[in-house]
């Protein structure tokens, strides 16, 4: 029976924040069952759970959490790696607000977690099983989740740029698929926006070492996948949904999403408790929705 997991040992690393440009020391530490994923601003003595209830700020370029006077920023790539590698319980200790960007992907976090190793705890893993569709729309942006026996993501991006007008991808997200197909995909940005971001004090730590930069006619650094952009959006969505506090069993479908839409959706899902239920990961998937309809309450 799938049990909750934590790290086998402490995993420390240093890096710089993409937006702050500041050097940060971070350590992933083993935690007990039902602890969940929590950040600790060691410099402020404040613990911040990785949960939608702690979302703070506009969530435009990154996903940030806030509690009391403390915040943690750019949490999504690390959360994506932790949840995809089945790390349910971990304390993430930091001495600065922003999680280091590393190479702009989740691959360095995968490496760090795998190097530390994981171990089982004496408690079953709890999963969110989707029972009926939930959707959030914002103009031409859309995100929805549908019942599915496994976690699956379909992502579509459309930009007004010749290099990435339209990319769509669907993947069943197992640990191995995440490691091979999603984790290496890097953050991307448009060259023409870099100067504007810097004037606003953002992207100060950004460089060709940690982001794919898209110019007018081509990318400034070699791609890891032809469709690296849509893969990175999948990475972001998985990390943002980790703020639900439990892995999801359902099919996530996103069109033109971003952190604001992903996180708004996570919050909306928790506001619709009729649309899902917690199950131990060992429990079989529920019967098809149609077979269960008579037993369900009428729609409101
Ligand atoms: Zn990202």
Describe this structure in words.
The protein has 300 residues and is of the alpha+beta class. The protein folds into 2 domains: 3-125, Ribosomal Protein S5, domain 2 (2-Layer Sandwich); 127-283, lpxc deacetylase, domain 1 (2-Layer Sandwich), CATH 3.30.1700.10. Helix content is 22%, strand content 31%. The chain has 7 helices and 19 strands. It has helices at residues 76-84, 107-116, 175-182, 191-199, 228-241, 259-270, 289-292, and strands at 3-7, 11-16, 23-30, 37-41, 46-49, 65-67, 70-72, 90-94, 118-124, 126-130, 134-138, 141-146, 152-158, 166-172, 188-190, 212-214, 248-249, 251-255, 276-280. The strands form 6 sheets. The chain has a 5-stranded mixed beta sheet. A 5-stranded mixed beta sheet has the order 11-12-18-13-14, covered by helices on one side. α1 (76-84) packs across α2 (107-116), α1 crosses α5 and α5 packs parallel to α6 (259-270). It is globular, with a radius of gyration of 19 Å. The two termini are 36 Å apart. 41% of the residues are buried. The structure holds zinc ion. The site of zinc ion (ZN) has 5 residues, from α1 and α5. Zinc ion is lined by residues 76-77, 187, 232, 236.
